[in-house]
Amino acid sequence: MKRLTFLSLCFCLLLVGCESKPTLQKYFVENTENKNFMAFDLSPTILNINETKLSAEQKNALQSFDKMNILAFKATEKNKPEFEAECARVKTILKDEQYQQLMKYGSGSEGASISFVGDDEHIDEFVLFANRKDSGFAVIRILGDDMNPTGILEMLSILKTSDINLEQLKPLQEMLAK
Amino acid sequence: MKSKIIPSVRPLGLGHEIQKSKLLRLSKKLIIVMVLMVGAPLFAQGAFDKFDGQDDVTSVIVNKKMFDMIGKVKTKPADKEAQQYLELVKKLDNLKVFTTKSTRVENEMKATAASYIKSAGLEELMRINENGRNIKILVKSGAKDTQIRELLMFIEGARNEDTVLMSLTGDFDLNELSVLTDKMNIPGGEDLKRASKGAKGPKGPKGPK
């Protein structure tokens, strides 16, 4: 009996331990349905890449890239307090040590940052966060499997040559245009 | 500590009280010292961080991780220029740039920079005055004359121009800087170039030693 209580206690602790840390993953899941938000999942097909033309390195880089999740908050006159609250929430999440910040840009009314998860040569995830006072904010997660810096450069070179299919991004563009 | 206090105090009879208050004072001091010890490097690091996020300030911060990551990019061995650049990037720690148009912030920057220069022991490398712009470049040198641990640049803007405060930390050579200014779009890059050229000369305007 005693052992059972101990075990269940351990189990509870484990659950609590998992629960306490807010991650972007959770944040995305929680807010996908929220009407203030827009969510997109993009797959590499958006790039419209003709794979036969790629070099071996480029192919590798492309394979390490998995998908891209975008969550955007559209600011309007009415949802200002929510905007600020959500913005602050994302910022707190990104302060967690698993998100290592690479670069940050900021001015009074807008800001952006790039962070990553993983270590230098084995990157699991890139997180881009951009916000502007009057239009809203967007969190972009680029998920991959063992991405590395060289691969990212390759990806960029692919992007240059690719014929990006922006159809998937239309709503986002419309939002930013406002 | 404790054992020293007890024998000298006990004969007075009030031993317990005195010992307590002494201990209390001691621990207070200890806490202050500890806070200072832990905090000092933080303050030094973040001397300019207060400008980050201010309304009239545009800031760009590049962290060590970024430089590390760029440094890990594999280049073709034939590309000498890129390799030189990567070699330098690996030696960098932090880049912080703050620009503003507001006079209030400018004055604040000036004051913060002045106190930081004193506390961090930066030496003036060069000073340029042209068209109402006042540019100061300061460095903290390492063991060798041209080895730099920190580079601080302050550009006082003329009317309607940006005031720029830039801090670059790492462990690099002054002569390598031109590589950086060529590749990176840093404000005041041209002036920095002049600074690194100046150092190449026969022991130019650098300070003693």
What's the total helix number of chain B? 7
Distance between the termini of chain B: 44 Å
How many helix segments of chain A? 6
Sheet of most strands of chain A: 6 strands, antiparallel
Labels describing this entry:
heterodimer; A: 178 residues; alpha+beta; six-stranded antiparallel β-sheet; 6 helices; B: 209 residues; 2 domains; 6 strands; disordered N terminus; disordered C terminus
Report what the structure shows.
The complex is a heterodimer of chains A (178) and B (209). Chain A is an alpha+beta fold. Chain A has 6 helices and 6 strands; from the N terminus they run H-H-E-H-E-H-E-E-E-E-H-H. Chain A has helices at residues 2-19, 24-31, 56-64, 80-95, 149-161, 170-177; strands at residues 37-42, 65-74, 100-106, 110-119, 122-132, 136-147. In chain A, strand 5 (122-132) and strand 6 form a beta hairpin. In chain A, helix 3 (56-64) crosses helix 5 (149-161). Chain B is built from 7 helices and 6 strands, in the order H-H-E-H-H-E-H-E-E-E-E-H-H. Chain B has a 6-stranded antiparallel β-sheet with strand order 1-2-6-5-4-3, sandwiched between helices. In chain B, helix 1 (2-9) runs antiparallel to helix 2, helix 3 packs antiparallel against helix 4 (80-90) and helix 4 (80-90) crosses helix 6 (177-183). The two termini of chain B are 44 Å apart. Chain A binds chain B through residues 100-109, 111, 114, 116, 120-121, 148-150, 153, and chain B through 52-63, 65-66, 68-70, 72-74. Strand 3 (100-106) of chain A pairs antiparallel with strand 1 (57-62) of chain B, so a sheet runs across the interface.
